[in-house]
Amino acid sequence: xxxxxxxxxxxxLPSRCSTSVPxxxxxxxxxxxxxxxxFTFDGFELLYSGAVDKxxxxxxxxxxxxxxxxxxxxxxxxxxxxxLDRERSKRMDLEQKMNDVLKTRLEDSPPLPPRxxxxxxxxxxxxxxxxVWSSRLQKxxxxxxGVYIEDFRFQPEESTVxxxxxxxxxxxxxxxRRLKRGARPVTNFLRNLSALSxxxxxxxxxxxxxxxxxxxxxxxxxxxxxxxxxxxxxxxxLIARGWRIQWSIVPxxxxxxxxxKEDLTVSEKFQLVLDVAQKAQNLFGKMADVLEKIKNLxxxxxxxxxRKLYICLWMAFITSCVLPYKLMGxxxxxxxxxxxFIIDFLFKSCPKLRDKYDTPFIVWNSLPTDPQxxxxxxxxxxxxxxxxxxxxxxxxxxxxxxxxxxxSREEETGRSHSTKKGAFHEIFNLLExxxxxAVCENGWRxxxxxxxxxxxxxxxxxxxxxxxxxxxxxxxxxxRSSSSKKNKVIKLVDITxxxxxxxxxxxxxSGMGISIATPSTQKPLVFGAMIHxxxxxxxxxxxxxxxxxxxxxxxxxxx
Length: 559
Prior knowledge:
It is built from 20 helices and 9 strands.
């Protein structure tokens, strides 16, 4: 390193430009430039040789290579400067050409307002300000409208399964009472409308008729109805605030409210459940009848009734296309008033007129429900089957020879019917010719209620009911195949009365049954809980009338 310093000192010889003493800053810059010019290539070679010798002597190759690289970079400063000067000159030439082109274009075009040059620092601050303002705007929008935006977010619907309450007599009774209390305003409103139409109070109905017809004539029918709705709501508000306001065309009858009993016996609870179930059954039955009639009206189940509706709809459509709506509203309002106050009153007062000329009433009553349609189809099927039964096969003596040995006439015409417990005639101790009719080959499942017996086991029996040509047979399901004590056989000739009967609504088949009276029983026997009660009644009654109309009574077939 000492040699390297000595070489450096030898290289820094005084130059020709250092005659004046440094003074001002301009003179110092001139002296520095003169020193740079005095540096020659020989001096660099001396430095380079001294450095190489020292590197070999100290064996520090790594440090010397780094110093060598630095020296080379210093030597290439001039070449780099020259290249930079060339690039600068080229860029200045290009800028000069671009400026010339822009000047020529600007001279041809109208002058533009001066544009301020933006520094990169200003661009960065502007970007930051924009980001801050956008974040503030988003925050303000979310605070104001975030609740409404969350409402429009799509989410999968969660299916919640409500827990069903167990059956309770108390809860069932309370629900029926709640339903009755909730429907009371609607029933009172309908009852008041019916009283207006029936002219229950002549003065009230006359005043209402005059006011309505005057409003309909001047086109104020709909505003009048809306005003009445507002008036009714205002009266309800005053009643809710404690005012005693009560107005009704028909006087309300207050039903005595019995306090609910807490301690009920088992029989009282059972009777309470039966009463509530009967009311619910009747209510649901009426609702089902209305819905089924509407469905059958629109499904052309009864074409005569649906055809009238179809023609009325076409006439209404053509009228709406031809006449203006103002005239149609006027006509509809007048017709509604006349129909409600006059026509309905005449029809209700004169039932014969209603049966002849009240088309909506006739159509509604003629519409069948689904059970009635089922009864009709079963009746037609049973009539067809009864018609085929009258045609019996004729077996001549010539055909008897073709019958193989061991086969009787009964087996040739039709094999004997058998039940689950054995042959039919063996169970009921009848002749082999007595077989169930084609309508009841499998029988009708029911329960026999013998009201002459007092024991519960003898009072009600479950089984199957059959009808033959001469007998009505009941096979008890609890009887054994070896004994027929619990089975019941009734001669059709001995029946004094046969009627439809309804036991309990909660039983199968809605509690429908058949009541049969005989001389041997004090109270009629009831075959209840029959699902196909109407079919069984028609078959039994047809066979009974067939036997009773014959001149010769049937012979005794009991063994």
